[in-house]
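To illustrate the input format used throughout this study, we show a single complete record. The first block contains the structure-token representation of the backbone; no residue identities are included at this stage. The design step must infer an amino acid for every position from geometry alone.
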């Protein structure tokens, strides 16, 4: 399983249910990387999408504590046991954890790779990705060149579990 996220200097990922910033090249990378794959997210992440609809051309799995929650076009699970049973149907290399904070925290230890767009700016944030730079069992395996979007600098990084 893999994780994918855009983080700021403090590993912030969101504020008030929205991304901190929208960088077109990051969105394009996210789309190209997850297209045709399985994406695992929390209910709040799903509800942050346009029209609260699942992502097209992907298997969408939504984790929520609300066992009665339903969403057309998505598989809804309410605990780790249900999630693991569902994920067993797919190649783990095709599964991407896409947020939000509580889902990343629950599943980061199940991941072997994390695709991180690191933004060289500190935003005000209320949701965070686990700081992989502080985790001994993670290392940077690919550090991309500096990219810019207007005056914002960012890097496409790949972290792998040791």
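Output of the design step:
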């Amino acid at each position: 399983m893999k994780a994918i996220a855009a983080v700021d200097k403090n590993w912030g990922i969101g504020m008030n249910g929205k991304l901190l910033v929208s960088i077109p090249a990051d969105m394009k990378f996210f789309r190209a990387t997850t297209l045709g794959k399985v994406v695992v997210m929390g209910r709040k992440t799903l509800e942050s999408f346009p029209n609260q609809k699942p992502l097209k051309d992907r298997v969408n799995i939504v984790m929520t504590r609300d066992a009665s929650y339903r969403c057309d076009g998505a598989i809804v699970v309410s605990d780790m046991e249900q999630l693991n049973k569902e994920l067993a149907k797919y190649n783990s290399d095709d599964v991407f954890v896409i947020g939000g904070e509580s889902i990343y925290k629950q599943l980061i230890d199940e991941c072997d790779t994390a695709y991180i767009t690191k933004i060289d700016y500190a935003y005000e944030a209320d949701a965070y990705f686990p700081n992989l730079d502080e985790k001994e069992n993670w290392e940077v395996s690919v550090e991309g060149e500096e990219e810019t979007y207007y005056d914002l600098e960012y890097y496409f990084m790949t972290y792998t579990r040791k």
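Structural context for interpreting the output: The helical segments are 24-34, 43-47, 80-87, 101-107. Residues 2-161 form a domain with the Dihydrofolate Reductase, subunit A fold (CATH 3.40.430.10).
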